[in-house]
């Protein structure tokens, strides 16, 4: 029964109506094979769970289960059978030991801000919601690092350390938890200056499938660099909850710059705007942020955030440093913009003006959704080498026009990463298929330029078909060996990154 229930969930999630017959053939083969027979979340299981965390920290209410079975993506809600909210790593360890013994699938939940269906409970089971683990364990101001529990968000950490003149700069634009950002290898608008989560994580505490607690760089250790053994830290950064549950992270902090200025400049074409970005980077300007918005995205932001900008391809820029250095950077950037026919260049140092600009940028997702009420949104996430960026964005626009897909674009173009925000009617199979086809073709364009199908959102459910194309069969087989070695019962976030069918049958599903 459990296999039947699980694969009905998966069939609904992974296929469109016109491919159901093929899915049933695969489904029948799955039932006769060696896929895991997951355990039940029944009364006995719930009693044992309550003995670990207390009755108040376990729920089976429909609203809570639905809330913890969805994220910001278009993927349908797949609710877990129960939700548990542990208060400590010891409790997470106890939960995992029990689930591993009973072969109950487990999905970790941070804040639900992902874009690839990473928190959907495809096979039901248990959701481990980490929002109650909110301790900021330590802040070492002279060493520029902090250690936080799994429920601490980047906003909470920055509020805590601001008085010390420090900040945690990784900014994906959502109220994400720091450990959740580790799990997806998030980045965002500041990556051009500070890098991604991979460059800013020093140590992780991870609970494995069998309940073992691992400190990836050694318990209590926080060196800025190490060459001691395998790099376990970066094995778990980007693992999307499929190898372990991250319960604590030690991350790098940075000083708040003396001065900050924000600037905008409009352009006649996409090529001119992106060529300007390349030239700015070639000149060695220490940019804090460089964001590109195409004309449809500017129109959406004007309507949603009352910006009043010219509806043309536009760059948002941010400079940081000393007051004199910021002014020098802004003037050089203005010269480069003007050299590429950029117009309406303006820059501001006032906090309120800068906040209005960047708040509008971070609200792009909601600005686009507001234009199409009732539709589901999906974000592409390709990244290419900087030299290939102008041509890739142009080809993206051409592809969108040829397929009749509205494609507002926003990009962290300083590191070659950009997103198309695509809207679809969840009841229109033809539209869904067209959006998926566009997303796949765009990812393949990026891969053809030596880029990646995902720069910061992860694989989740939505990009599994692109993973093997990108890394090759050898690397993909190594990933499967890792997964089966660390999680032999395949209970950790099943179907994400690598499907069960790929793990068992070596075939896509």
Can you describe what's shown?
- This protein is α+β, with helices and mostly antiparallel strands and 509 residues long.
- It is 41% helix and 18% strand.
- The chain is built from 19 helices and 18 strands.
- A hairpin with a 4-residue loop joins strand 5 and strand 6.
- Helix 11 packs across helix 13.
- About 4% of the residues have low confidence.
Quaternary structure annotation: single chain
Helical fraction: 40-55%
Spatially, the strands of the biggest sheet line up as 15-12-14-13-17-18-16
Beta content = 15-25%
How does the overall form come out from the CA principal axes?
globular
Uncertain spans, ≥5 residues at pLDDT below 50?
A: 14-32
Q: What is the residue-averaged pLDDT?
A: 91
The N- and C-terminal alpha carbons lie at a distance of 20 Å
Rg measurement, Å: 23 Å
DSSP summary: helix tally: 19
What structural class is derived from the secondary structure elements? alpha+beta
Largest sheet, in brief, is: 7 strands, antiparallel
E-strand count: 18
Question: Layout of helices and strands, plus pairs?
Answer:
Elements: H1 2-14, H2 20-31, H3 43-53, E1 58-59, H4 62-67, E2 82-84, H5 89-102, E3 106-109, E4 126-129, E5 136-140, E6 145-149, H6 154-161, E7 166-167, H7 178-184, H8 191-194, H9 197-200, E8 201-207, E9 213-215, H10 232-236, E10 245-252, E11 254-255, E12 259-266, H11 270-282, E13 287-293, H12 295-305, E14 314-321, H13 323-339, E15 343-348, H14 351-362, H15 364-371, E16 376-379, H16 389-403, E17 409-412, E18 417-424, H17 429-448, H18 464-486, H19 500-505
Parallel strand pairs: 2-4, 3-4
Antiparallel strand pairs: 1-2, 5-6, 6-10, 7-11, 8-9, 8-10, 12-14, 12-15, 13-14, 13-17, 16-18, 17-18
Helix pairs in contact: 1-2, 3-5, 11-13, 11-16, 12-15, 16-17
